[in-house]
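Hi R.,

Here's the chain you asked about this morning:
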Amino acid sequence: MKKCISVILTLAILAGMCAVAVSAKTQDADLRIAVASDLHYNLPREELAAPEIGTVNSDLYWYANRRADMEDESGFIIDAFLKQCAENDYDYVLISGDLADHGKRIPQEHTDVAAKFAKFEAETGKQVFVINGNHDFSSYEGETNMEDFKKIYADFGYDQALYIDPDSCSYTANLGDKYRLIALDSCDYSKSTEDGMTLEKLNFVKREAANAKKDGRYPIVMMHHNLLDHMPMQRIISRNFIVRFHYTTAELFANWGIRVVLTGHEHCSDTAVYTSKLGNKIYDFATTALTMYPLAFRELSFTDEQITYTDVTVQKIDTDALQAAVKGYSEEQIARMNEDLNAYAKGFLKAGVEYRLWLSMTMEKMGIQESDFFYDAANTFFGRLNELLTMPLYGENSVQELAREYNIDIPDSDYKTAWDIATEFVAMHYAGEEHYGPDSTEMTVFMRVVNLILHEDLSHFSDEILLKGANKILANTGLTPISSSLNKLGCRMFGSVSAGEFFLLVLVAPFLYEFAVDTDGVNDNRGTIEGSGVSGSAKNVTARIGSVFADIWTYIQNFFFILSRVLRISY
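And here is the predicted structure, written out as tokens:
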């Protein structure tokens, strides 16, 4: 025991020494920057109001919106962010797009944000650099255009630029003595969210990276769209949030000497790495939306040898000023904000996500007409799905009670509904550091609820389509429909899944695991990576080959492990 304690104490002392060393290196950094993204500033309303379509299922967050942005609080969150930047020794503040929420049609939002930046620069002497996002301007007549954007934000990159691209908002500027910012306009001005990467824009990056190297500087790219995947199969599921041909682009960027890319758009805090075929590593630091949970921005410190990064949360806002500007806040809402702003933001996010998903499951939103032959089936399916999601997870007439009828065991937890746990995973994705492993209570509950939904919805789907005629005959004779009873009986006799359901679970389980557990080996919010002065190409090539086989083996292990957890049968 004494030996064990001695070892622990020794490790603790070594850890403390390492912390001091890291702190010392941070203080001696060649460059320290704060990076925020997706400010989505909104002009505050005079008074809170519920959404126009439907209702938000929350007494506290009744005014939440489908995008889950804290719209009315956004300006005060931005003020708090700039105040925290003023109180820290950052050399520069960088913003990777979507400065205004309705910037295309409400230029006042841009001028308000620019005024906040100007005040910050005047008071601190620290330079702000921006690049545009998909919300900021468009090519449509009568809306904010590219020249308007450059003019409004002239003091925040363009007047300090070494070069400004005449055909886009891209520019370059020096950051301190060793680094050069390549601010890359990745947007398509005629599209809502899709990227606008072109050969000309790639050539711009190649030329400016070469110029930086020639001047003895390390390039840092900042753009709105993601360079690498920050969620499972992002190119397929969320394709408009990542640049086209992203692996090819990452290959080129890495081999042009770019180590760090700062992005936003996906509204998640996630760090991803790619190793080129020549062994050059490139890191994509996606920064979450500042005015959404977790109300966070990044802090990065650079030396030749290492780059240290961490996440920083906006701690509090001026709620007195908020109440003076916007009427309708309850005493409880203000008290919750003052007590724990981040927890309030999380509740707001979960209410907004639930509201958005609920809206998307209506027949009207999905474009399904009553005259469509599958209307009844779809209406039954999604109606029952919504019932299961809103049903109490535990207690009388609960999801847990219903699951037992299908021989599915849902373990106890603190979650109230299936919506509650589903939105927890979404919140975790935005915050980064997905940490719920396959054996966690959260993953087990969620996957078994998915299992129940498959059973229950397929039962009702069968009622509607396959056994509709038989059920009508039975109803006329005073008997109840048979499909649910047959399904439950089959579960008790033969196990909890049919061949079709097993196939669906095989497809969905690994995806859900990857969404809930970060397996890329890079810490999302806090860590240290190689500095731009470190090469290690040959070693990286070898590591890359080994990591491919390791990923395959991990996927196989997780696949079978999840199935064993999800499909476990209790008799």
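One quick note: Residues 1-26 have pLDDT under 50 and may be disordered.

Cheers,
M.
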